[in-house]
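Private note to self, pasted from the team thread so I don't lose it. Backbone tokens:
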């Protein structure tokens, strides 16, 4: 049994990574990092990960713990990949990473992130001085394809997976959303479903009844140009 910290976005890859660790008897903390400049996406993701949390706890009682990590304000046109990665690293370090045996990120084969793996490892090492004990950073899904993990993840979890970068909110309370069918992720989903018959997520979802106050929050990080400022945490509002 290992204590594992996972960067958990509610997407297919990180949901599978959490599930696989739980299935292997590990104790998992999933850290969700909020991207503030995409309000709809954040609302949808938070709602879905709270539903996923409920399912994980039903199947693996006491072994899963959800943390809402840092809020990030990434106001920067196209070049957000490296900035987002820096933020995940900081967010993971903030989450008392030293108290875990491993920190895991769910990058799969052909993921955009794969070409940044060395950078991510370097960042991890560079930032590690801020915590008392350096914890190994692992990418367990690197040699798995999206298709493979989609086949391994039970349907009840797949149904809750989020992928759209720009979901449309069609009703506030209870929350109903619609995928945009036009963003990079929606297009990739269409490609994958046409090519491999992958199905995950749903066109519409309604919402959770969880209490946002029950989740710890960390400071906001603002990324504008190259400036990084820490700001006090605010409450995350979920309906
Ligand atoms: Zn979309």
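Design output:
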């Amino acid at each position: 049994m290992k204590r594992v910290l996972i960067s958990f976005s509610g997407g297919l890859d990180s949901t599978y990574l959490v599930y696989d660790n739980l299935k292997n008897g590990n104790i998992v903390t999933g850290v969700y990092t909020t991207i503030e400049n995409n309000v709809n996406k954040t609302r949808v993701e938070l709602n879905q990960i709270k539903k996923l949390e409920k399912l994980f706890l039903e199947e693996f009682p006491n072994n899963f713990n959800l943390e809402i990590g840092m809020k990030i304000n990434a106001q920067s046109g196209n070049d957000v990949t490296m900035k987002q990665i820096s933020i995940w690293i900081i967010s993971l370090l903030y989450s008392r990473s030293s108290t875990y045996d491993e920190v895991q990120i769910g990058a799969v084969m052909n993921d955009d992130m794969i070409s940044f793996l060395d950078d991510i490892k370097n960042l991890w090492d560079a930032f590690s001085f801020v915590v008392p004990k350096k914890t190994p950073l692992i990418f367990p899904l690197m040699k798995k394809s999206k298709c493979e993990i989609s086949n391994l993840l039970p349907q009840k979890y797949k149904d809750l997976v989020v992928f759209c970068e720009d979901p449309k909110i069609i009703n506030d309370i209870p929350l109903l959303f619609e995928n945009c069918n036009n963003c990079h992720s929606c297009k990739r989903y269409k490609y994958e479903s046409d090519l491999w018959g992958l199905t995950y997520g749903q066109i519409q979802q309604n919402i959770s009844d969880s209490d946002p106050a029950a989740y710890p929050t960390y400071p906001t990080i603002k990324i504008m140009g190259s400036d990084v400022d820490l700001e006090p945490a605010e409450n995350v509002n979920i309906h």
